[in-house]
Design goal:
The chain has 437 residues and is an alpha/beta fold. It contains 18 helices and twelve strands. Keywords: ATP-binding, DNA-binding, Nucleotide-binding.
Length: 437
């Protein structure tokens, strides 16, 4: 049911905000309710690996895009309902044991009002036009028609309730029928998520991918870009069933990591059934997505960066050996070891990857010597991000091209920054360098 992934991938793709860095989740989350935010967070942590489930979710969101609908419930009303209905769930040693009379009255009044709004919404033409939500709509309507809730609809939503009615409703809502009320809230929270994502799709011009059956080996993304970047450069990459490995080269600062994040994020988000930042996309459903962009040393087991890379490759190998179809990304594979070992390891691992036709692999590397060997593999494709030299100043197009490049401009950048001259000035220059850094 769910796509396999891990915390390393979630960190690599920066799905959630960290410190002052915005996350992908923040773009899509325009939910009005705390419940909606919680559901969307789960969707981000648990993408789907079932074509029917992906199509159902994307079709619902696309329907709301077409309708250009607004969330039909008042956020403050729902906030009152949430606080009231979950009061008993949040008790701790420092909480008061009971709701006050005023809090109970406000909570009951909010639930009564919400039920009336929900009943009207469930029979609305707008909601009825979304066939993919038919089952959930009927289930919610059936809950509202439960005889236990008849007294709620005997009251007007803005009527002033007696103390006796408040007490009776409180027992009904928070004790006897609490489970059903929570189920109705879950329906509303999902509507909140769908409408939130639909509004984001309209605002940012996101597109819904075409979803193919698992095992068909299709992955085509045209005009993909990173949704968090302003004026992002779009790129296109198509991985046919017969070309399952991309070997990516380019100088530092040429945009490799940004492209890799953009492409991988689209693959990940597409498996959520959400629209993606691209001109168009087609993909075959996969079993898992694993990226390795910023792999830290594993200090917990005393592992160096290289050994952490080896363990990462081993994990991927174990998943592949079980017959799973994966999207796998390594940014600068085996950067934690010497050039000779990196070359041999890159050739061996990439060569093995090319034999797994049911999976897709993107490997970026500075070890261009590996490309000469990998060219013998029919399923390997080669792309690079170019650097254009304007005198001694490198300029970057950030536009993907076919082929291999041996661009290396590290010393040019070091010289352009005048670092060696600063260091030659002795201690005084060193202090100035520290201030600049």
């Amino acid at each position: 049911m769910y796509l396999q992934t891990d915390s390393q991938t979630i960190e690599d793709l920066r799905l959630f905000s960290k410190a002052d860095i915005q996350g992908i989740y923040d773009i899509y989350n325009q939910s009005f309710t705390r419940g909606g935010q919680a559901i969307m967070e789960v969707m981000f942590k648990k993408p789907l690996n079932n074509r029917e489930a992906i199509l159902k979710r994307s079709s619902i969101i696309a329907a709301f895009v077409k309708l250009k609908t607004a969330f039909p419930f008042d956020g403050s009303l729902l906030d009152n309902v949430e606080k009231y209905i979950t009061f008993d769930d949040n008790l701790d040693g420092g909480s008061k044991p009971v709701l006050s009379e005023k809090e109970t009255q406000n909570g009951v009044t909010a639930v009564v009002g919400l039920f009336h709004i929900l009943r009207r919404y469930l029979v609305s033409q707008e909601l009825g036009s979304i066939k993919e939500l038919e089952e959930e709509r009927h289930a919610a309507a059936s809950l509202l028609q439960d005889p236990a809730f008849a007294p709620v609809f005997n009251e007007q939503p803005d009527a002033r309730l007696s103390f006796g009615a408040i007490t009776a409703f409180d027992v009904l809502i928070r004790v006897k029928e609490k489970r059903k009320v929570l189920q109705l809230l879950q329906f509303i929270y999902h509507i909140d998520v769908y409408i939130s994502v639909a509004q984001v799709a309209l605002q940012h011009g996101l597109v819904f991918p075409e979803v193919h059956a698992k095992g068909t080996g299709i992955l085509k993304i045209k005009g993909v870009y990173h949704p968090l970047l302003k004026n992002a450069v779009a790129n296109t990459l198509e991985m046919e069933p017969s070309r399952n490995l991309v070997f990516l080269t380019g100088a530092n600062m040429a945009g490799k990591s940004t492209f890799l994040r953009s492409f991988s994020t689209a693959v990940y988000i597409a498996h959520m059934g959400f629209p993606v930042a691209a001109a168009s996309m087609e993909f075959s459903v996969l079993d898992g997505v694993y990226t390795t962009i910023n792999l830290p040393d594993n200090l917990g087991i005393g592992a160096s960066h290289f050994y952490a890379e080896v363990l990462r490759v081993k994990k991927i190998g174990q998943e592949l050996s079980e017959g799973k179809s994966l999207f796998v990304l390594f940014d600068e594979l085996f950067r934690g070891t010497n050039v000779k070992d990196a070359l041999e390891g890159t050739i061996a691992v990439c060569g093995a990857f090319t034999n797994r036709k049911d999976s897709k692999f993107i490997i970026s590397s500075h070890i261009i010597e590996a490309a000469a060997v990998l060219r013998k593999k029919e399923s390997a494709a080669f792309y690079f991000l170019p650097t254009i030299m304007k005198g001694a100043v490198p300029e970057y197009t950030y536009t993907l091209q076919e082929g291999v490049t041996n661009d290396k401009h590290g010393m040019i950048i070091i010289n352009n920054e005048g670092i060696l001259e600063i260091l030659k000035q002795g201690n005084k220059g060193g202090k100035r360098l520290n201030r600049q850094l």
